[in-house]
Amino acid sequence: MRRRAPRVAGAVAAALLGGAVLAGCGPGGAPARTAAPSSPGSTATPSTGTGTAPTPGVSSARPTGPTDGPTDGATASPPPDSSATLIRVSRSGGYAGATHTLVVRGDGSWTRLDREARPEGTGRLDAASLESLRGALRGADLAHLPRVATGDPKVFDAFGYVFAQDGVEVTRDEPALTPGLRAVLESLPAFTPDR
Questions:
Q1: How far apart are CA 145 and CA 142, in angstroms?
Q2: What confidence tier does 144 reach under pLDDT thresholds 50, 70, 90?
Q3: Spatial separation of the C-alpha atoms in residues 114 and 125, rounded to whole Å
């Protein structure tokens, strides 16, 4: 048994050495190719013969060319929804005390609602009128106005207005309208069929 131990140890050593030599070979026993380092200090990884070799000229990395979105890491804002409400303005009071509402959508289409919120007229602003309304809304800057303002002294037969845009609602009596809000009103269709 002592004579077999050296033979077994020699066979094991030969098998390990043979495995090490074969590990450096590609398929079919040919020497494996290694890629040259791309820059000083980088190391190449030898091929083990498993998997697929990269195709020359084809990169598996993500493309870095022009994209549809911003490239500085910012997220692109979605395009505006033309069917979404651009502005909703309600007018109430006056001598008759009636309430009428105008809803203008992003595409310029509008609906006039009566006091029960039933449609009583529809239409569409032309491109120039829609751009005028958008400019007036930018100038009015509803988001930075106080939410409620009344005239002093109170005028009881004057109109009151509620402007609603992008979750912001501003309420004004007619004497308390800012020039920007007056420009918005001038850019809107009529609140009633007879003006």
A1: 5
A2: very high
A3: 20
Residue 49: closest CA among 69, 73, 30: 30
Q: Which two tokens stand for residue 56?
A: 């020359």
DSSP letter (8 states) at residue 28: G
Q: What is the 3-state secondary structure (H, E, C) of 120-131?
A: EEEEECCHHHHH
3 sits in the region (left: phi over 0; alpha: psi -120 to 50; else beta) called alpha
**What pLDDT is attached to residue 1?**
46
Q: pLDDT tens digit string along 2-49? A: 455 455 444 444 544 454 444 454 455 444 444 444 444 444 444 444
Helix (H, G, I), strand (E, B) or coil at 66: coil
Global pTM exceeds 0.70: no
Q: Helix, strand, or coil here: 74? A: coil
Packing angle between helix 179-187 and helix 127-140, nearest 10 degrees?
160
